[in-house]
Specification:
With 201 residues, the chain is an all-alpha fold. It is built from ten helices and no strands. The longest helix is centred in the middle third of the chain and has 25 residues.
Length: 201
């Protein structure tokens, strides 16, 4: 708990030093849906079947967080963000759907409902989703312009990696699979590092 509080303090300090007023305001606005999700899905409605699947809620929140700071930049073209943002949200949802399938029994023991518990056909859906998304992302990659291309490429690679982790989960175990599935969401680090690190030949 002490480490968590210390990290929160460091994060807040870095945010107030490095973010603009509009970015801080947007971040505060993002707290509203995040807090609503925590209260609804983690406290009040943990085992209620009719609630929206937590996996869909998390995917939308992650997408909102990813779009937050680029959308605050002056002169940003919101429409150009639509394709990469949509692909990222679907990739996050695919990640969460896979984890809900692997951790089905854990959620049941904690009294927590999930996509795999709410919908009987969700397991087959979760297995197929990364591969369907990889095809969709590849098409978007080929059709995207120079600005959206890297994001579509990241979604393609990330979804293929997630599909592979799905295939290997029974062999490597759910804990390692969970870690690797989250790493699959970090494929945008590659083009990001390529733009900020002065590579030399």
């Amino acid at each position: 708990m002490a480490v968590w509080i210390a990290m929160l303090g460091l994060d807040m300090g870095a945010a107030f030093r490095g973010l603009s007023t509009s970015e801080i305001r947007a971040g505060a606005f993002m707290l509203v849906p995040v807090t609503a999700y925590l209260f609804s899905h983690q406290l009040l409605h943990r085992n209620i079947q009719w609630r929206p699947p937590k996996e869909a809620c998390i995917a939308v929140l992650l997408g909102g967080g990813a779009a937050l700071f680029p959308a605050c930049q002056p002169g940003v073209d919101i429409l150009r963000m639509a394709i990469p943002l949509t692909l990222f949200v679907f990739l996050c949802f695919s990640n969460c759907a896979s984890i809900s399938m692997w951790e089905n029994e854990v959620d049941r023991s904690h009294g927590q409902t999930s996509l795999a518990i709410q919908f009987p056909g969700a397991i087959a859906f979760a297995r197929a989703l990364p591969w369907a998304l990889s095809v969709l992302s590849a098409v978007a990659w080929l059709a995207a312009g120079p600005k959206a291309g890297p994001a579509a490429a990241c979604a393609t690679v990330g979804s293929v990696l997630l599909g592979i982790v799905n295939l290997e989960e029974a062999r490597i175990g759910r804990i390692l699979a969970h870690v690797l599935a989250d790493l699959a969401l970090m494929t945008p680090l590659v083009p990001l590092l390529a733009t900020v690190v002065p590579w030399t030949v």
